[in-house]
Amino acid sequence: MTKAGSKGGNLRDKLDGNELDLSLSDLNEVPVKELAALPKATVLDLSCNKLTTLPSDFCGLTHLVKLDLSKNKLRQLPADFGRLVNLQHLDLLNNRLVTLPVSFAQLKSLKWLDLKDNPLDPVLAKVAGDCLDEKQCKQCANKVLQHMKAVQADQERERQRRLEIDREAEKKWEAKQRAKEAQERELRKREKAEEKERRRKEYDALKAAKREQEKKPKKETNQAPKSKSSSRPRKPPPRKHTRSWAVLKLLLLLLLCVAGGLVACRVTELQQQPLCTSVNTIYDNAVRGLRSHDILQWVLQADSQQ
């Protein structure tokens, strides 16, 4: 291991082989995040540097075998700290750690671990125990790994349980949605059926009304002859009146003709004709008969008195 305790120079110039040991003065000069430029570093000493956090890029140093982070002010490790799968020796003495990331369970190569002087969670502190010698530190590494694997398994089961609950809730929601959609479809279907039935009734009503309207003229036509037949006794008088006027006109015409013929037979030279002789004879006989009639004589006397 090469010590890089002097100031100045590039970080790569301070790297000798794959081992790097940085002191406080070095970190004041070189940010911790630049350590990602050394992906093949295997040993890294960052103790006594007052570090409060580690950047996520730090976990890219996957070739690290030994890491010393003791006597800093770390409150937590990066969530993906488990990417350091080749790490065998980890010193976290005298920090401010309460818990470890779940990914810590992935450090399958870890053989040595020191968590003394940290305000650990009581359960984790009991699992870690003391690290006063090599044996206890190895036991700490083994027990903490087993504990973190159990925590990881519990969290995975909890995650699976929550996923199952979420899936069940999603299934229930989907079933509820399907039931709701089916209910809406049934409602729409029923509304369509009701609308169809309403239209059918309206159509039947219109059709029935149309049939009724078609029947009314027939009834009127059937009733019309009755009304005509009932009014026939009233209408014949005009016809009889018209017929009587025609007969009267005909009689007047005949009377005029007879009068004309009578005048011709009595006044003109035709009176010597045989026909006129017969006519004159009939006229004379009629006049004598009328004069001998009592009623006619009474009328004539009344006229003469006036």
Automatic annotation (TrEMBL):
Membrane topology annotation: Single-pass type II membrane protein
Subcellular location, record wording: Endoplasmic reticulum membrane; Microsome membrane; Nucleus envelope
Entry keyword Protein transport: no
Region Disordered: start-end pairs: 175-241
First and last residue of the signal peptide: none
PROSITE patterns: LRR
Stretches with biased composition (Basic residues): 229-241
Assigned keywords, A-Z: Coiled coil, Endoplasmic reticulum, Leucine-rich repeat, Membrane, Microsome, Nucleus, Repeat, Signal-anchor, Transmembrane, Transmembrane helix
SMART domains listed in its UniProt record: LRR_TYP (SM00369)
InterPro entries listed in its UniProt record: Leu-rich_rpt (IPR001611), Leu-rich_rpt_typical-subtyp (IPR003591), LRR_dom_sf (IPR032675), LRR_domain-containing (IPR050216)
GO CC field: endoplasmic reticulum membrane; mitochondrial nucleoid; nuclear envelope
PANTHER family: LEUCINE-RICH REPEAT-CONTAINING PROTEIN 18-LIKE, PTHR48051
Subunit structure: Can form homodimers. Interacts with SGO1. Interacts with FGF1.
Function: Required for nuclear import of FGF1, but not that of FGF2. Might regulate nuclear import of exogenous FGF1 by facilitating interaction with the nuclear import machinery and by transporting cytosolic FGF1 to, and possibly through, the nuclear pores.
Name the record gives this protein: Leucine-rich repeat-containing protein 59
